[in-house]
Amino acid sequence: MQSQKFTLMLDSVRRLMRGGATARALNVLKKNRPADVAMVFQSLPELDRKAVFAALARSETALAAASLTELSQSEAIELLRTLPPEGIAQVLQELPSDDAAAFIAELPEELREELLDLMKVEASTDVQELLSFAENTAGRIMTPDVFALKEDLTVGEAISAIQRASSDIELVFYLYIVDDRNHLVGVSSLRQLLLVPPTTPLKKIMSSDVISVSTDTDQEEVARIVARYNLLGMPVVDEENKLVGVVTVDDVLDVIREEATEDIYALAGVSSEEGIKSPPMRSVRLRLPWLVINLATAFLAASVINAFEATIEKVVVLASLQSIVAGMGGNAATQTLAVIVRGLALGEVTLENSRRVLIKEILVGITNGLANGLIASLVIWLWFGFSVKMLIIGGVIAAALIINLVIAAISGTVIPLVLKKLNADPALASTVFVTTCTDIGGFLSFLGLATMLLKYLL
Fold this sequence. Notes:
By secondary structure, this protein is mainly alpha-helical. The chain is built from 23 helices and six strands. A three-stranded mixed β-sheet has the order 1-2-3.
């Protein structure tokens, strides 16, 4: 039903824009949610998308702003850049300060300063405060306008305070309680307030065991804590344990999506700055460096093959089989790498348990190597016929597969752990290094073993 409704809305907007009826197209959008409007922007041709957004930003600034938060950051920035600075400032000040800060941080510095001057003082001050924190930290993504209650209030007074401030409260599932100096001392739920007499002091019903993070906590760690304890919000405190903001669950979902996208792209050697709609030359510029690095490592693998040129000339069948070992190693390494990188991202793999993880992956590599080695040997005997020579080659490829799948397990586990220890993104360069290990290991083990047994293969 929803898909039919969206299709009808999109067709209406397209038809009206084609007929020059921009005002009527905007009337269609005004009746829908920001998420649906964002989907329309993603589906429209570039010129129509920019024209509709510019018109919406002028007449329905709040809706235009809300729809931006439903787009990827690159898509939102692309639309913002179609507006003059005054228009961008008007849209940004309709957003929560954390979202506004995220967009402004992606704009050129000279434009950033101009926008902060054009925005209302209160909005500009909040954004500048958030921008003072390091990128990808809790301080950068938090909402500074957090509602808090004083610990000396009664439940009745607390409810009255909530009612007075209801329009300014982003999150009322948790009620953070502070002392006179704004130190975070407890937390309660709205439900608890409704279940006790109004004269009950907050101190009696609050929990002093508050899960919080500091402003410099990495956003991935914030997401892990929220997921671990099934929270809807995370209070953020400064070095003195004063409450300075809250990271809400929608912010956490954005972090999870962003980090997952970065990891997937990085494993493929693609920059997270690239999107489906990126211009061809931008995609070339972002992908080419990694392809050049891959080319260099491919020459390393080719040099190993070249070292065994004499063996291949004498036993030509080795040339058609050598890529099997390297390819299987690469596939196995990708599997290990995906598990380890995900484990590191979720905090399941640490330096403390890395030895146990490595042993497990080696056992998996040996077992998979044995199974695939046996299958490969049988295929070779069926393909080339059963003979002493093919029996030896089958044994060689089986042994090489075991060796290379163990290499895949070790490199796929150790390399991301080393990168993590060096404070580098484990997903960013792991694929290149791991593939190099399995290519060289595969060719070296297969052709090396064949060379050792060459006299039996002639």
